[in-house]
């Protein structure tokens, strides 16, 4: 796995420098305390079971709702938080930013099914130390956990390349807010009430978002933004 922005000085999960970082992390930290946030109970239980087999890991919290992440992290003081993106309540990306502010010594590793370039960029902006998709082997995840604790940034290499080629998110925060409010086919009036803007301003933001996503209407804009990980 390589660094997301091409600035990595490591060449892979098993590289010499990465291995040294892993050894340093284990030697200085002893048992690595993990918080796991995943909304699917079976997946959460399986991850906890498999990671718990590692002799230097301890699962200190298992959560299914994003609103619980920061309070439980402050209570349990994990070394690394493994966060899914699609969570009830606060999503994993927003929770990552809040967790980095509330408990900066805790490293955040995003673990998701949704390998989208926009999600990767947002995760890095939120201060995440790693971003992996769920289809990798658990042994690779275990090494990634030790590497982020050693101060490295660990990113799925294919996704890193896709993020660089995709470019930055073209949508402003307000455009994202308006599109997010339009997800369920809400009317302009409904969106305006939800985001506390006038209907005319909402129409302007929707028009701008439609143009930037090169789509024909707001629902196509929502789909395009989701597919790119911009929402």
UniProtKB/TrEMBL annotation:
Domain of life according to the entry: Bacteria
Response regulatory domain location: 33-149
Low complexity: bias regions: 10-21
Domain HTH luxR-type: 164-229
Annotated stretches, region: Disordered: 1-24
Keywords: DNA-binding, Phosphoprotein
Modified residues (4-aspartylphosphate): 84
Coiled coil: none
PANTHER family: TRANSCRIPTIONAL REGULATORY PROTEIN DESR, TWO-COMPONENT RESPONSE REGULATOR
Protein name listed in UniProt: Response regulator transcription factor
Species, as recorded: Streptomyces yatensis
Phylogenetic lineage: Bacteria, Bacillati, Actinomycetota, Actinomycetes, Kitasatosporales
């Amino acid at each position: 796995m390589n660094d997301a922005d091409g600035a990595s000085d490591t060449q892979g999960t098993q590289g010499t420098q990465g291995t040294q970082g892993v050894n340093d992390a284990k030697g200085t930290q002893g048992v690595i305390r993990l918080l796991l946030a995943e909304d699917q109970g079976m997946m959460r239980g399986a991850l906890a079971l498999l990671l718990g087999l590692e002799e230097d890991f301890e699962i200190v919290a298992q959560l299914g709702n994003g609103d619980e992440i920061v309070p439980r992290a402050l209570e349990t003081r994990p070394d690394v938080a493994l966060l899914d993106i699609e969570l009830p309540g606060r999503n994993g990306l927003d929770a990552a930013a809040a967790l980095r502010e509330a408990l900066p010594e805790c490293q955040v590793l995003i673990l998701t099914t949704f390998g989208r370039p926009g999600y990767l960029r947002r995760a890095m902006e939120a201060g995440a130390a790693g971003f992996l998709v769920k289809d990798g082997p658990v042994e690779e995840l275990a090494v990634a956990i030790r590497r982020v604790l050693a101060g490295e940034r660990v990113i799925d290499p294919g996704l890193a390349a896709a993020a660089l080629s995709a470019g930055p998110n073209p949508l402003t925060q307000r455009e994202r807010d308006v599109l997010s409010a339009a997800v369920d086919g809400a009317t302009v009036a409904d969106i305006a009430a939800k985001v506390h803007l006038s209907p005319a301003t909402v129409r302007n933001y929707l028009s701008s978002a439609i143009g930037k996503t090169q789509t024909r209407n707001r629902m196509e804009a929502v789909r395009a933004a989701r597919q790119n990980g911009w929402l």
